[in-house]
C-alpha cells in the first residue's frame, strides 16, 4: 500500500499512525475556493490510428484525450483531468475496435502531476465491466524523491476485433447504470422519486424517498460526488436494497423512518468522465458551507425545507465514496447529535457480522463545522454522519456484505427507539 501514497499522505501517516498496519486515511481536508473554475472540455472524437485500428471517446462517461500508435502492437493514450489542481484519480473510459482481430497493448499515460490509479476493466456487450486478466496488465512504477513509488504509466493487453471493446477505470461508465438501478428501486410501492433541481448542465437532480413514515425521523444517503468512485455507489446500492427488502425488520423500519437517497450527486461529472469535479470545475465535497455549486445547494435546500415543513429531524446520514482502502471518516466522538453514539456502535456491530473484517475508523479531530457533506449533515441537522469509503479494489462481494450488514444493524438499532 505504501507505494501508492502521495508524499503528504506519507508525512501524515508517520505523524498520526495509531497502528502500523492500519491506513490512517487521507490528509486533513483542504479548504478550497468553490466559485466556478474553468474546465477544459475534451473533444469527442474517433482516433484513426491506421491499419483499420480505431479508438474513441464518444460515449457517456468517456475520457480519452489523445491516442497515437507507437508500433504494430502498442498504442499510447493520454488521460487528462477536467482542470487542475485536482487529486490524482485519473478516470478513463473509451472504445477500441479493429478490422483485423489481434492482440494490442494500450499504454495509459497521465499528466506529470498524475499517476495511474484504476485497474482496467473491460466490457464486450454487457453493462458490467470485468477486471482485465492480471497477466495482461503491466504497471510501471517510478521511485519518487521521497522514496515512495507511484505507477507512472501502465499497459493493458486487449484483443481488438471488429466487435467494439469498451475499456474503463471502474465497473461501468456513464449515468445509465444508476438510472436503471433507480428504476428498479422505484418498482417498490413505498419508493418515490422527487426532483430537487438541476445540475449546472441541466441534468435532473433526483432524490428517492424510501418508506411510508411521517417524516418525523429521516435519514439521508448520497454517492457519486466524485465520478470515478463507483465502488462507493455499489456500497450505497447494497445498503439501500437491504432497507427495501421484504422482511419484518425492514417493514417496521420503513413505517418509522423515511430514507432519502441521492445516488448521483454529480451527474455532469459522471456523464463527462471527470476525474473529480463537477462542470463548475469544483470538488463539490468542499462546497457544503458556501454552496456555490447547484448540486450540494439543491440537496441542502431540500433537506432544510423538509425540516421546516415537517418539524422532523434527520437522525442519520452517510456519504458513500471510494479511496485507496476501506475507511470510515466519522465526526469527533465528543460531539453529540440527534442520536449520540449511533455511528461508532453501528460500524462496530455491523463489522462483527463479517468474518475477519476489522473496520478502520477515523473520527475527525476538529470540533467545528467543515466544508464536507458529512460536516453539513451533522452540524446543520444534528444527523449522526459519516463518510463511508470503500477501497477502489475492494472485492465487490465484500462491498455488498458490508452494505447489507450496515443497513441491517442500522435498522435493528433504530427500530428499538
Ligand atoms: Zn470521494
UniProtKB/TrEMBL annotation:
Pfam families: Peptidase_M14
Sequence ranges assigned to domain Peptidase M14 in this UniProt record: 168-417
Catalytic residues (UniProt): 389 (proton donor/acceptor)
GO BP of this protein: proteolysis
Keyword annotations of the record: Carboxypeptidase, Hydrolase, Protease
A single MF term (Gene Ontology): metallocarboxypeptidase activity
InterPro entries from the UniProt entry: Cytosolic_carboxypeptidase (IPR050821), Peptidase_M14 (IPR000834)
Cofactor entry: Zn(2+)
Family to which this protein belongs: Belongs to the peptidase M14 family.
Protein name: Zinc carboxypeptidase
Amino acid at each position: 500500500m505504501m507505494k501508492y501514497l502521495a508524499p503528504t499522505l506519507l508525512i501524515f501517516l508517520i505523524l498520526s499512525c495509531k497502528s502500523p498496519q492500519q491506513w490512517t486515511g487521507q490528509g486533513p481536508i483542504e479548504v478550497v475556493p468553490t466559485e466556478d473554475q474553468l474546465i477544459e472540455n475534451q473533444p469527442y472524437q474517433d482516433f484513426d490510428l491506421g491499419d483499420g485500428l480505431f479508438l474513441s471517446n464518444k460515449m457517456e462517461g468517456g475520457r480519452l484525450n489523445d491516442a497515437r500508435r507507437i508500433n504494430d502492437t502498442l498504442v499510447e493514450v493520454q488521460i487528462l483531468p477536467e482542470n487542475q489542481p485536482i487529486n490524482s484519480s485519473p478516470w478513463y473510459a473509451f472504445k477500441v475496435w479493429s478490422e483485423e482481430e489481434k492482440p494490442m497493448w494500450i499504454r495509459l499515460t497521465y499528466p506529470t502531476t498524475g499517476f495511474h490509479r484504476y485497474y482496467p476493466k473491460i466490457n464486450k456487450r454487457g453493462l458490467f465491466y470485468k477486471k482485465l486478466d492480471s497477466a495482461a496488465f503491466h504497471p510501471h512504477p517510478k521511485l519518487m524523491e521521497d522514496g515512495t513509488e507511484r505507477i507512472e504509466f501502465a499497459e493493458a493487453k486487449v484483443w481488438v476485433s471488429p466487435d467494439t471493446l469498451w475499456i474503463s477505470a471502474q465497473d461501468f461508465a456513464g449515468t445509465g447504470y444508476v438510472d436503471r438501478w433507480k428504476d428498479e428501486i422505484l418498482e417498490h410501492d413505498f419508493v418515490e422519486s422527487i426532483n430537487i433541481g438541476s445540475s449546472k448542465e441541466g441534468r435532473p437532480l433526483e432524490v428517492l424517498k424510501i418508506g411510508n413514515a411521517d417524516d418525523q425521523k429521516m435519514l439521508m444517503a448520497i454517492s457519486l460526488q466524485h465520478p470515478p468512485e463507483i465502488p462507493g455507489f455499489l456500497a450505497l446500492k447494497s445498503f439501500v436494497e437491504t432497507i427495501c427488502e421484504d422482511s419484518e425488520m425492514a417493514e417496521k423500519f420503513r413505517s418509522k423512518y423515511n430514507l432519502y437517497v441521492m445516488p448521483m450527486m454529480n451527474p455532469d461529472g459522471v456523464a463527462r468522465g471527470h476525474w473529480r469535479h463537477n462542470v463548475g470545475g469544483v470538488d463539490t465535497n468542499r462546497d457544503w458551507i458556501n454552496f456555490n455549486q447547484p448540486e450540494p445547494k439543491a440537496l441542502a435546500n431540500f433537506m432544510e425545507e423538509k425540516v421546516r415543513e415537517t418539524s422532523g429531524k434527520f437522525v442519520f446520514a452517510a456519504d458513500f465514496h471510494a479511496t485507496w482502502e476501506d475507511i470510515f471518516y466519522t465526526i469527533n466522538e465528543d460531539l453529540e447529535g440527534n442520536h449520540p453514539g449511533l455511528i461508532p456502535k453501528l460500524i462496530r456491530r455491523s463489522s462483527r457480522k463479517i468474518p475477519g473484517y476489522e473496520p478502520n475508523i477515523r473520527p475527525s479531530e476538529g470540533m467545528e463545522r467543515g466544508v464536507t457533506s458529512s460536516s453539513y449533515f451533522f452540524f446543520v441537522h444534528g444527523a449522526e454522519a459519516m463518510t463511508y469509503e470503500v477501497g477502489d479494489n475492494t472485492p465487490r462481494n465484500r462491498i455488498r456484505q458490508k452494505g447489507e450488514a450496515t443497513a441491517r444493524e442500522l435498522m435493528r438499532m433504530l427500530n428499538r427507539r
